[in-house]
């Protein structure tokens, strides 16, 4: 079956540090890949997505590249801010003809001033 | 317009009781999803509606769980004979089109269910 594996958190960084949150997946076919973010007290919201191999999704300074050869979709940001503190979820859908998303467990990011 | 709303935001009930959780999707969104999120986990799919019909209910854990969407907008998730293991945050999401793999889902804030 499909699965998404994320690095365990919390990830604790100082403001302006470089961020990487690793995400790898197992799926058949060519799924679409997503990063969702959940800020404290709010619902999940889509951060970025990529629908085919080598696509790069980007939003709010975050980027992730769909790497089919390594089945990865790592999230990066060059300079994090305190306001980026949240839980980040990697997800896939469209594997094996199923549109039902599969989510990772989430990675908590804490950014200190 | 408003986003996805869910009511109540919190629900505390006793083991064995019946509960209903409501989801109001974004107006015009035909696809609606229910998920369950346990502490420290990602959302786990329960059921997907396309319009009024349940297109995929393969994630419902057992027959105590049931969901309806009679007019193709508001949906209600119903849990009978609640158990302590049902305690979780129940999330609803909607999307504009037909549930394709590239659809953007818009999530509500969730209902936190606690079964004592």
Mean pLDDT of chain B: 92
Residues in helix, % of chain A: under 10%
Beta-strand content bin of chain B:
over 45%
Q: Describe the largest sheet of chain B.
A: 7 strands, mixed
SSE order of chain B in H/E notation? EEEEEEEEEEE
Strand percent estimate of chain A: over 45%
Q: What characterizes the major β-sheet of chain A?
A: 6 strands, mixed
Order of helices and strands of chain A: EEEEEEEEEEEE
Helix and strand content put the structural class of chain B at mainly beta
Overall shape of chain A: globular
What does this structure look like?
The complex is a heterodimer of chains A (113) and B (116). Chain A is built from no helices and twelve strands. With 113 residues, chain A is mostly beta strands. In chain A, the strands form three sheets. In chain A, strands 2, 5, 6, 10, 11 and 12 form a six-stranded mixed sheet that branches. Chain A has a four-stranded antiparallel sheet with strand order 3-9-8-7, with no helix packed on it. A two-stranded antiparallel sheet of chain A has the order 1-4. Classes of the chains: A mainly beta (113), B mainly beta (116).
Summarize the structure.
The complex is a heterodimer of chains A (113) and B (116). By secondary structure, chain A is an all-beta fold.
Jot down its keywords.
heterodimer, A: 113 residues, mainly beta, four-stranded antiparallel beta sheet, 0% helix, B: 116 residues, 11 strands
């Amino acid at each position: 079956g499909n699965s998404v594996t994320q690095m365990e958190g919390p990830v604790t960084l100082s403001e302006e540090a470089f961020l990487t949150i690793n995400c790898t997946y197992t799926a058949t076919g060519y799924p679409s890949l997503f990063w969702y973010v959940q800020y404290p007290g709010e619902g999940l919201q889509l951060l970025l997505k990529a629908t085919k191999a080598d696509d790069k999704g980007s939003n709010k300074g975050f980027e992730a590249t769909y790497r089919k050869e390594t089945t990865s979709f790592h999230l990066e940001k060059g300079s994090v801010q305190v306001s980026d503190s949240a839980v980040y979820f990697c997800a896939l859908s469209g594997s094996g003809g199923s549109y039902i998303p599969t989510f990772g467990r989430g990675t908590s990011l804490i950014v200190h001033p | 317009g408003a986003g996805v709303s869910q009511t109540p935001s919190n629900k505390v009930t006793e083991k064995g009781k019946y509960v209903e959780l409501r989801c109001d999707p974004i107006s015009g969104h035909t696809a609606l999803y229910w998920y369950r999120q346990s502490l420290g986990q990602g959302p786990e799919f329960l059921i997907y509606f396309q319009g009024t019909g349940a297109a995929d209910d393969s994630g419902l854990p057992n027959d105590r769980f049931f969901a309806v969407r009679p007019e193709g907008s508001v949906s209600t998730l119903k849990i009978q004979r609640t158990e302590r293991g049902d305690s979780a945050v129940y999330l609803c999401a909607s999307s504009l089109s037909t549930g394709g793999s590239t659809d953007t889902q818009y999530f509500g804030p969730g209902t936190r269910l606690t079964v004592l």
